[in-house]
Amino acid sequence: MHNDSILHSNIQSLVKTSLGESIISIELLPGAGSNRHYYRVYTAHNSYIVCNGTQVDENKSFIYLSNHFYNKGLRVPKVYGHTPEFNMYILQDLGNTDLLSFKLQSQEHEWLPLYKQALTDIAQFQCKGIEGLDFSHCYARNEFDSVYMNWDLSYFKYYYCKLTDIEINEQKLEEDYNTLISFLLQSPRSFFMYRDFQSRNIMLHNNELWYIDFQGGMRGALQYDVVSLLYQAKANFTEKQRNELLEHYLNQVSKYMYIDLQEFKTLYEGFICIRILQTLGAYGYRGIIQKKPHFIASIPQALENAKQQCNIVSQIIQIPYLQTLIQQLPLISNTHE
User: Fold this and answer.
1) Is the pTM of this model over 0.90?
2) DSSP H helices in the chain
3) May I ask the CATH class of domain 99-328?
4) Alpha-carbon distance 216 to 142, whole Å?
5) Under a CB-based contact definition with an 8 Å cutoff, are residues 120 and 112 in contact?
6) What confidence score (pLDDT) does residue 334 get?
7) Could you state, in order of their start, the residue ranges of all structural domains in the chain?
């Protein structure tokens, strides 16, 4: 209770200093995948979102990137202020409706144009948003390179594979990881990569799409963000829908540069593979280890996606052990201890 009192006092002070307004009430918002805590604060005439996060470098990245994109006219929340220690900041309130929630309760003719708009917008982030961006502000790493790819694949190994009873041949798995990484590194990485561009991080507010949770962004390849959106397990697109949305994206991004479509689509298959494996690791960690229900619910579809995609990629590059391993992986659930 004492800690709550201190926290509320700190929020009150931040709002007063940044906006000159007094708080009437504070509401803790439901948590998602991170250790950050979000609060909706109400003043006499407005509401705002306050983020309280212990990872100062992550907070600094978000504030820098949000200001950068906001100044370029991209729809990101305005940052109104932050504490001197960067452990708390105050944002524009974008409401409660994310794009995934909207999709799951609406018809295709309602949600499909919004996903096309999101893909139009991500092309802007990637190609225009990068202009003048200082990647030294990226807190995790400034480029999606071989080191970061290896981290993602290790996430899958330790937080999914090793939660099962399957014996892993570390050497063979490492060889196939290196083959996949070498393949992915053929793609140009001179764009802003949002990193977690999925529909829970896209808010539908006043009939417009707004973008959040980009603090993990870095320099990277175009394909990754498209994959993140179209292969989100819970979104559960049909192949026809994915193809239509991919073609829309390619039409949009081609306005900024020449795209070799055959090369793009071949490498795209590899990025689908690494993204799905990374998310399986994330679902294992957030769902099984941390016991967060909506991550557990996403595991079955993600595992099925991984099995299908690894078969496709194995027709392009030689990853025999990884392919066999994924086909053998069982479904893990919240009964795991």
Assistant:
1) yes
2) 2-19, 56-71, 99-104, 108-127, 146-159, 170-184, 222-230, 239-253, 261-283, 293-313, 320-328
3) alpha beta
4) 9
5) no
6) 60
7) 2-9+22-92, 99-328
